[in-house]
Structure formats: C-alpha cells, structure tokens
Design brief:
alpha/beta; seven-stranded mixed beta sheet; four-stranded parallel beta sheet; 45 strands; 27% helix
C-alpha cells in the first residue's frame, strides 16, 4: 500500500483559528441568524405576479426575444417560425472569442432566447471543451450595464447624427487615425479595417493584449507557434499557466490530459516540471513544482539551456530538480517541450533554442496560433504619439487601455490631445466614457463574424437573437464611415466565397451549421522559416537585467475574471472560487507563510503595495507554494465603470507593472507596508468541510501503479464474524433493485485539472443563485457543485501511526512551503443508502427508481435535517429570496429584471426561500433523453444523456451514464477499475454513493512531493 499523505484544505484549518474552530464545531455555521440590515423580514412569499414574471418573463422580455436567427421583424406566435417549437431547445453553432479566450460553441436557445452554451464537438481545436469564462458569457448578453444606444459626450444621440459627425471629423483629420483593439482573429474584420484604412490612408491598426505574449512573438520572428502537449512525454514550464490562462488553455488542457490518463492497458504518463512564483492551476497539476522568484526565471532558463544545449554563459541558478528535468528532456528528445510565460524576449529566445536543440515535435510553426497578436512596442509608441499631438483620431474597438494597460494614465492624458475620439465598446467603460462618440457594438451572440484561431482552422459566429438594444455591429460602423453601403453579413459571405469555392451556398450552409471549416481566410504566405535566434544577445540581456532588491511582485491572471475587460460585470465569474486560493469577489496579495509570520500579518490584513510610483491596497492571503521573497496579485480587478456588479471589486494592479524597452513586464520589486485596515477574504474551501474523515481523496505514484495497480487505492474494511469485509456487506438497509435505469457518475482525478468550468456549467443549467461577498463570508454560497482543493502535508500514514494524531496535527501547523495539490469535484453523491432521506420529516427528499436522490421543493419546510445528516456537505439552503430581496439586487441583478430573467432555464424551477437544494444529476436532461428515445421506441443510447458538468469538462474527467447498460462507458470503466483505482468517498460510512472517483496517479516519487 502506498504512503498516504495527510490532507488539509486551508491555512485556517492548520492553524486552528478561533473562527474556524467555532464554525467547524457548529454543524450549521452557515445557518446562524444574520441581521437583516434593511430591517425587513424576508419571510413573505413571493407575490404570484412576481413568480409568474420569473417563470414566464413577462411581455416586455418576450417581445425582445428573437424568433429567427437573425430577426428582421417581430413575429407573433400565431404565425410561429417553423424552426421554433415551445418547450423544445434549438442549438446553433457559433464562436466565442473575447480578445483572448477562444471557444467553438453551440448556443442553446429556448423560444428564441439564448440560455446556455455547450462546447462544439466539431471543432478540431476545442473539441467540445469549454472554459468557465465562455460558459458564463451568456449572462453578459442580458447585462443591463450595456450601452443601449449611440451617444455623443455620454448622452443618447441619433445614430445618423453620430455617423454624420464621425465621417466629417475623420475626413478633416490631419494627424494619424488609430484603431486600437485587443487581438483580432477575424480575417473579415481585418479586411474591413484594411478597407477603412484605404479610405483614410493615415490609419494605423494597433493591437495590444492586457496579458501580453509580445516577447514570445518577438523571439519567434512574429510567429506564435502552435504547441501540442499531447506529443510531449516531458514538459518543463517556467511560469506558463497553460492549463489556466496561457494562450489557449482549453486546447492545451485536452492535449495535456491525453498523456495523463492511465489504465492497465496504458501505464505511461507524461512528466511535468513546473518552475513558477505564484501557485497557478498548472503548477498545482504538475508532478514536480519548484517555486522561484520572478527575477530568477532568466537565470533558471539559462541554466537549463546550458544543461541541454551547452555553450552558454554560466548561470547563477542551481537546482537539483532543474538538472533532473534537463536529463529527462534530453532522454525524451523530440518528445519533449519547454514553455515559458515570461514576456521577456531574451527568456523566450533561450526557450526556443532549447526546443530546437531537443528537436521537439510538439511545436508547429507552419500552423501558428493567432490568438495573441498584441505588440507592446507599437502600443507604447501610440501612447507617446497621442501625448505629442500626432494623433488626430482614435477608435477603440473592444479596447479599454485606460483600465487594462500599465500606461493607462498616459492614455487619459493623451486622449485630451486627440481631436476625435470614438468608442465601439459595448458600454461607457473607463476608456469609452472619455470618448466624444460612442457607437456600441452588438453582443457576439447578436453578430455575424468569422475567426481563425490557428492558420488553416476557421470558425463562424452567427446571431441567435435580435439585437436587444439600439446598437450596431462594429464592422458595420467601420464600413459605413468608410463609405461602403454593404452590410457586414454580405461582406462576410463575399470574403468566404474564396474560402469555400465550388457550390458556395451549399458549402456556406454547411459551415454555418457546423460552425467550423478547414482552410484559411488570410492571404497566402510561404511556410515561415524558423528565424535565426540571437542566443548570445539573449544571454547578455539576461545577465545584464537589473536584479530586484527586496520583495518581488508577480502579476498574474485568474481563470475566472481574466483580464477583467470583458467579463468583470458577470456575477457568475465574480463568485466562482479561484481554483487554488478558493477566494471569490476580488483580488488580494498572496504571500508565503514565512513572510506573513515574519511581518506579523494575518489573513485579511490590508497592506499597501508600492511600485513604479503607484500604490494599491489589498488584503493579505497566505498562499502555500508562493515563492519565498515574492508576492502575487491578480490583474483584472479594480474596475470603476464596468457595471453594478464589477465596479469597486478589488484593485487594479496593472499600473504597478513597469514597461522595459517598450515591453510590459509583469514582475517588479515592491515596497510593502501594513495599514490599519482589515478586509476579510471570501474563501469557500473550508465552508463545507468533511474534516478528518477518510478516505476522501486518494493518490499514488506511477511507479506504484506499474508495480501493482491493485495496491494504489486504499479500501476500507470492517470487522464481521466472517472477518474483514467491505462496508456494503453489512447494512441495516434493504437494498434497492434498479430494473430499468441506474444513473451514475465517475470522476477521474487524473483528468480533473480544477478549472471550474463544471461549476459554472451547473450554475447556468440549474438557475443557481448568486449571493454576493457577504453571504459567501457567511458560508452561504449556493453552488450545487464545488471543486475541493486539498493540500498534502509532509507527513504520511506511517508517521501518523507512529507519532499519534495530536503530535501529527502539531507538526501540520507548520505546513509545507510547497505542498502537493489535489482537486476533487464534489456534488450530491446520490447515495443508495442516503442518510438525508431517513431524516426528512416531510419526505421532501426521496429515492427514485433510477438511483437519484430527489428533491420535492414544495414539500420542503426547511428543517435542514438532511444537510445535517449529509456527510459530503453538498446541500444548500435558501436563506433568502435571491430573486426578489433588494439586498441581493446589486450582485444578482439579472434576476431582478425581465431582461436578465431571459437567461433562466425554463426546465428548472427557481427555488423559493426556505427550501433545500442540491445537485439533481440534471434530471431534466435525463427526462428529455428518455422521452426522445421513447418517441423512437428504444432505450436511450449511451452519450445521449449528459449532465451539464460532464458536458462542460474540457478534459472529459467526468463520465455520466446508465450503469444498467453493460455497454455504456461508465459500466465499462467501473468494471475495468474495480479493485484498482475506483473508490467511493467516505466509503466506510456505507452510504453507497452513485458517484465513483478514480485514484489520482502522479508521475513522481514521494521524495519529490515538496522538492
């Protein structure tokens, strides 16, 4: 049997803080009474009219909904469109791209209104996967903070008047006209911009990225290589969070996990080394993780270059794990890959040289990625030109540099010297509010567009709802101002004639239907020749780089909010717990424990961080794994003109980022000083804890798995007169007999990377309420599904048994500086011997004939006995009417308007105050699948019924199906893994869950756990 590490969830659990002890010993800490600050009772029942508005949305919302795609005029349901049937969903292929995050999607509509996104399995890039950001973007369509009409100086204006004044202003402009945008991967949009530039020859298009990879582009001759992690047996990453936020995480996650899945037929795994400052999602999944300060990255890459290629200057960085990584890279040869998240061209040049020396086959420059094209130098030059009066007009297209660029203050100053300023952004944001003219763009679900995320791979976006407001697609605005009367839809079709050829209409219909196509819409170019690498220059630059003195700041991007420019006003993403810190609603200063002890900081103490002549004040979060001598802060927060949800959440750290040689640097030396303020951090990890029960999660090493797969999982045994037996051999229950279906789920902990897409997918599908920061602090978040993040200590089973529990706990209060991390999705386990069912006095929770633990909401009287009896702590109690209580209007605003309620799934009831709710295995999807099969007089086929969480998962870590079907994937998986990796959480309780986990296997040795 493998050595079992001791798991813990958070710093507060290790320190036995008074607040944690109080809440841990109180079974229902989240049920303690909270004073109503408004002085009113929330006990009243929702008025019937409000309830009907919630369920039926009301006439005003219905008239907004589309019945065609696109809609030309309103159509009464007396003459309903042929393709729309009440109660039947329609799906339309489209594409989500917000300037950084690409997903090919299927948009689910009900009666013409989009309510859910699913991954498009036809896409060769995202392959049906979906990020949390893309999942949540459907809510942004109904965001009341969007600009509802054209504007002049912030006041509503007639569209024709705006067009007239803009054309006149542009025609009279003598200086440069700049179009500023984030990365654009639409070939047709770029041609529209080129046509605009032909009409106004002094036009320059400048692209920048808030989280820039300009250094990687410069090192590779302007080309962003495609990476294929499935072709790498050894991966070494220097701060590249490729599973979370770096370039194309959905694509990379699928590739990565392809080499991480193991079975008795495939006992091989890739080997992953991660060298980084902040604990990232990718670092948490690595086999070997080595913390290092940001200033050490250059020397570490140089040391690896010396080990692999040789001939470089001596490096000051010396680490045993790096030497081991070098040996394994050389042994893997072409099946090895090195990546770096640094924006320093010198670092990226050495990384490219290492990959060339290895002959890596995991890099493709012939089909480069196009999702990052921002040029730091061009943006910096434009800012200087604006301030020197050389720019006569500037047009911002989805760009908000006042907020998301380190030179934001200089942009503000420069705008005052530009005569004509135009915003195409969807709201009067920090930059748009400073512009004279606003011509707001449609939401992407109201628009036609095309995308080429990688050369040779095309996708389309189509409108699935009529424009909700008096907006206009940005491309149409540019065409209008350039004097081209063609609509962008026809312009787009004409551009695609050269792509599809042949029978165009047939090919076009197929491309729109599928959402993807092969080919390229960019001008033909020769296969790029690998640029010559100036290795000596890169080494000299690394050697001459200024050495940071004191504490260093690492600026990073979160999985949920991202750069904050697009989704900051989305409450689903604000309340999504960060995969590592499990914090919601804001950013913070992540510090290593040793620094907190040295400075006498406690979690929640507000500190002032100063660099680059700027300061921010944020609370301290003690983060295991943070490199000694460094801190990290997430960008994307601190908005002031995002909307009711996103404003004043956290602080904007980008002004602290320096620009060196016109390139943004995301690390710098900082000064820290403690303030007298405190700001609690709304973390979720220990709210619904299972405490010291075991086994909850299990892990083993690949070496142990190869030696004997039947010994990598620890199975509980109980004493009986016949000897030790499985817990299910002894029971007071009468077992259920499932004659038709028996629904179950399997979750592979090897494949789960903790990204949170399943959490948002569940929230969207099941109308799960947002509660806001204060209620999260009150331990009342409503997510039906959570992802538990466990740190492992240095103490293992043998030490535990030898030292005793008290001694081990005392040792654990000095946690590892670099713990191993495991993610475990936790949802209702739909137990066959469900403890909740026996204690409900009104039979609100019952067992179905198909293995589901059901909730009948209108029976529930809120005793909460079921939650008290649930060992997994997966039930959620509605303390308030989140859709009608005014104290939640600011954070749950979409449930307070007819417009916002359009996002609700009509197949799932909106729960009232005072009832318990939980995961239902998406019973509405199960029933739909059964009914569709019944129409065809057959049983549902495996794969026809998929829960929202399983459908959302980009790595296919979750398998759902009918365990009564011997040919189903879940039946085959459980047969294969029985007695090996398959286990039930808290199996000794004999509640017999219908959710099975597979033990996590790491390609590491125990001695490397905390290297």
């Amino acid at each position: 049997m493998q050595e079992s590490p001791k798991y813990w969830k958070g710093i507060e659990e290790l320190e036995n803080s008074p607040e944690f002890i109080k809440n841990a010993l109180t079974e229902f800490a989240d049920f303690l009474p909270v004073k109503d600050t408004h002085g009113t009772s929330d006990a009243t029942v929702a008025p019937r009219r409000d309830f009907l508005k919630l369920m039926g949305f009301g006439i005003a919302a219905a008239t907004l909904a589309s019945c065609e795609a696109p809609v030309r005029k309103a159509i009464p349901y007396l003459n309903k469109p042929e393709e729309v049937d009440p109660g039947i969903p329609n799906f339309y292929a489209s594409t989500y791209f917000n300037g950084q995050d690409y997903n090919s999607v299927l948009i689910k509509t009900r009666e013409g209104r989009p309510i859910k996104l699913e991954g498009n399995p036809e896409s060769p890039i995202t392959r049906g996967g979906l990020s949390a950001r893309a999942q949540a973007s459907v809510l942004s369509l109904y965001d009341g903070g969007r600009l509802k009409n054209f504007a002049i100086d912030g006041k509503p204006a007639d569209k024709d008047l705006v067009d007239q004044r803009v054309r006149t202003a542009l025609a009279s402009t003598t200086g440069k006209i700049a179009i500023v945008s984030p990365t654009i991967i639409s070939p047709s949009t770029k041609k529209v911009i080129a046509e605009f530039a032909a009409r106004f020859p002094n036009t320059e298009h400048v692209m920048y990225d808030a989280n820039s990879v300009s250094g990687l582009l410069r090192a590779n001759g302007g080309v962003l290589p495609s990476f294929d992690f499935s072709k790498a047996n050894v991966i070494v990453s220097f701060g590249a969070d490729f599973l979370g936020t770096w370039i194309s995480p959905v694509e990379y996650a699928q590739q990565y996990v392809a080499n991480r899945k193991v079975s008795t037929e495939k006992k091989t795994m890739s080997r992953h080394f991660q060298f980084e400052s902040a604990m990232t999602l990718t670092g948490a999944n690595a086999d070997v993780r080595v913390p290092l300060k940001p200033s050490e990255v250059g020397e570490a890459v140089l040391a690896l270059y010396n080990e692999v290629a040789g001939g470089g200057s001596a490096s000051t960085y010396n680490n045993a794990q790096l030497k081991k990584a070098a040996r394994e890279l050389k042994a893997a040869g072409g099946r090895a890959l090195v990546v770096a998240g640094s924006n320093d061209p010198a670092v990226q040049t050495l990384v490219a040289a290492i990959n060339r020396a290895l002959g890596s086959v995991a890099i493709d420059t012939a089909a480069p990625s196009l999702v990052r094209q921002g040029d730091d130098a061009r943006m910096a030059r434009l800012v200087r030109e604006m301030n020197s009066g050389q720019v006569g007009a500037v047009i911002f297209y989805h760009a908000n540099p006042v907020f998301d660029h380190p030179l934001g203050e200089q942009v503000v100053a420069g705008l005052k010297k530009v005569k004509t300023t135009i915003s195409l952004n969807d709201r009067l944001d920090e930059t748009g509010s400073l512009c004279t003219y606003a011509a707001p763009d449609h939401n992407w679900m109201e628009s036609w567009n095309d995308y080429e995320p990688k050369r040779g791979y095309l996708s389309l976006a189509q409108p699935v709802i009529t424009p909700l407001f008096a907006t206009r697609q940005a491309q149409d605005s540019l065409l209008t101002w350039a004097g081209n009367p063609t609509s962008y839809y026809h312009y787009l079709r004409n551009q695609w004639r050269g792509v599809l050829g042949g029978n165009f209409q047939k090919a076009w219909d197929k491309a729109v239907h599928d959402g993807v196509a092969r080919g390229t819409a960019t001008p033909a170019t020769a296969v790029p020749v690998a640029p010559a690498l100036d290795v000596n220059g890169a080494i000299a630059a690394i050697k001459s780089a200024p050495k940071a003195a004191g504490v260093e700041l690492c600026i990073y991007e979160k999985v949920g909010i991202g750069n904050g420019n697009v989704e900051a006003n989305n409450p689903w993403l604000q309340e999504l717990p960060d995969p590592v810190s499990k914090a919601t609603w804001g950013n913070y200063v992540a510090v290593p424990r040793a620094m907190a002890v040295e400075q006498q900081w406690e979690q929640g103490d507000v500190v002032k961080v100063t660099a680059n002549g700027k300061s921010v004040e944020l609370p301290v979060l003690i983060q295991p794994g943070q490199a000694a001598g460094s801190i990290s802060i997430a960008l994307g927060y601190g908005r002031t003109k995002a909307g009711r949800v996103g404003d004043q959440v956290g602080a904007n750290v980008l002004p602290l980022a320096p620009t060196r040689n016109d390139a943004i640097s995301y690390h710098t030396a900082v000064q820290l000083s403690k303030t007298d303020a405190k700001s609690p951090i709304a973390q979720t990890q220990t709210h619904h804890t299972m405490m010291d029960r075991k086994p909850v999660v299990q892990e083993a090493t690949l070496a142990q798995y190869i030696k004997n797969p039947k010994e990598v999982t620890e199975y509980e045994r109980i004493s009986t007169p016949e000897g030790l037996e499985k817990p299910n051999k002894v029971s007071l229950w009468q077992d259920y007999e499932y004659k038709n279906h028996h629904w179950g789920m399997a979750i592979d902990l090897n494949s789960c990377i903790g990204c949170g897409s399943c959490v948002i997918g569940c929230q969207v599908e099941n109308n799960v309420a947002v509660v806001g920061k204060q209620e999260v602090l009150n331990r009342r978040e409503m997510h039906w599904m959570r992802i538990d993040r466990y740190y492992s200590s240095d103490h293992h089973k043998e030490e535990f048994e030898q030292e005793g529990k008290l001694a081990t706990y005392a040792a654990m209060e000095d946690p590892s500086e670099n713990p191993q991390v495991i993610f475990q999705p936790m949802l209702c386990q739909h137990c066959n011997h469900a403890p909740c069912e026996t204690v409900c006095p009104v039979l609100a929770t019952t067992h179905s004939s198909e293995g589901l633990n059901q909730m009948t909401y209108n029976r529930c009287v809120g005793t909460r006995y079921c939650a008290n009896n649930c060992p997994y702590k997966v039930r959620r109690f509605n303390w308030f009417s989140y859709y009608s209580n005014e104290k939640f209007e600011a954070v749950n605003s979409h449930m307070f308007t007819d417009l916002g309620r359009m996002v609700l799934n009509p197949d799932v009831t909106v729960r009232a105050r005072g009832v318990m709710e939980k995961c239902s295995f998406c019973v509405q999807r199960i029933q739909l699948g059964k009914l569709e099969a019944k129409k065809q007089k057959r049983r549902p086929k495996d794969g026809e019924v998929v829960t929202a969480c399983a459908q959302s998962c980009p790595t296919q870590a979750i398998v759902f199906g009918d365990m009564r079907d011997p040919a189903s994937r879940i039946s085959q998986l459980l047969r294969r893994e029985d007695g090996e990796r398959a286990f039930h959480a808290l199996d000794a309780l004999n509640v017999q869950p219908n959710v099975t986990y597979l033990t996590k296997i790491r390609n590491t040795e125990t001695s490397e756990f905390n290297a």
